[in-house]
Amino acid sequence: MQEAILHPFIDAATIHRRVAELALEIKRDFTGTELAVVSVLKGSFMFTADLVRRLYEEKVPIQIDFLQVSSYGSGTESSGSLKLTRDISMDVRAITFFSWTTSWIRAAPPRSSIAF
Question: pLDDT per residue over 30-74, tens digit each?
Fold first, then answer.
C-alpha cells in the first residue's frame, strides 16, 4: 500500500501572520473585556494554542476552556449527527461561535449557564 503524500494547503508563514492579525483585531475590538476562549476539541486546539499565545503576548486577559463533540462514535464514518462528549466547565454569560460544528452547539439545549 502506497502512503499518501500530503501538501500544506496554507503555508505556516501565512497562518502565523493571520493569527497575529487576528489577535490584534481581538485586542482592538474587546479592549477592557476579559474573554472566554472556548476551543472545540480536537481539531482546533493547535490554532487555539497559537491564538491564545498571541493574545497573551498582547496582554489580552482571557480564560480558556474546551468542549468536544463527536459524530463518529466508535466508527470511521460520520453518523451525520453530533453528540456533546465534553462540556465547558467555566461560567460564561455569552459565547460567540464560528464554524459548522458550533452551529450545532448553538442549537443544542442550554447547558450550565451558557447563553447563546
Answer: 888 878 888 777 778 888 899 999 999 999 998 888 887 776 666
Contact residues for 105 (Cβ-Cβ < 8 A; gap 6+): 40, 67, 69, 82, 84, 97
Each residue of 71-111: pLDDT tens digit?
A: 666 666 666 666 777 677 776 655 554 444 455 555 555 44
- Distance from C-alpha of 108 to C-alpha of 46, rounded to nearest angstrom: 25
**φ, ψ for residue 50 (rounded to 5)?**
-65, -45
**Residue 8 vs residues 16, 49, 57, 78, 110: alpha-carbon distances, Å:** 14, 19, 27, 24, 38
Report the candidate in 115, 113, 116, 93 with the shortest Cα–Cα distance to residue 103: 116
